[in-house]
Amino acid sequence: MNAFKGAQFPKSVILHAVFFYVRYAVSYRDLEEILAGRGVAVEHATLNRWVVKYAPSISARAQTRKQPTANSWRMDETYIKVKGR
User: Fold this and answer.
1) Whole-angstrom Cα distance, residue 48 to residue 34?
2) Distance CA 56, CA 80 (A)
3) Residue 40: exposed, middle, or buried by beta-carbon count in 10 A (0-12, 13-18, 19+)?
4) How many domains does the chain have?
5) Distances (CA, A) of 27 to 18, 24, 48, 65, 83
6) Phi, psi values for residue 39, rounded to 5°
7) For tag attachment on the chain, is the N or C end more exposed, with fewer CB atoms within 10 Å?
8) Would you call 30 exposed, middle or buried from its count of C-beta atoms within 10 A (0-12, 13-18, 19+)?
9) Do the domain assignments include residue 45?
10) What is the pLDDT of residues 15-69, one digit of tens each?
């Protein structure tokens, strides 16, 4: 990924921020506070630009590495009795 060339922050910081936003669905302002607690001063608008710019390419790469699932699957059912029913 040469998309990080010229970025003011290291690639690892950008990837961590985008992953954290997508995985845990926090707001940009909350993510700004989380990163500030880790010593990274970044504005919420910058986080928004990172997610818009890098999330689609990260998602596309993750989809290509995803293992195929089996053709058949089964779901187990559990019954719990409540008041005799």
Assistant:
1) 15
2) 43
3) middle
4) 1
5) 12, 9, 10, 28, 43
6) 90, 15
7) C
8) middle
9) yes
10) 999 988 988 889 999 999 999 999 999 999 999 999 999 988 888 887 888 777 7
The domain containing residue 42 runs over which residues? 11-65
Residue type, 41: A
| Two structure tokens written together for 14 | 């950008």
Tokens 């845990």 correspond to what residue? Answer: 24
- The answer as to whether 56 is a domain residue is yes
Q: Quote the pTM value.
A: 0.69
**Which ranges of 1-83 does DSSP label H, i.e. alpha helix?**
11-24, 28-37, 44-65
CB-based contact 17:42 (threshold 8 Å): yes
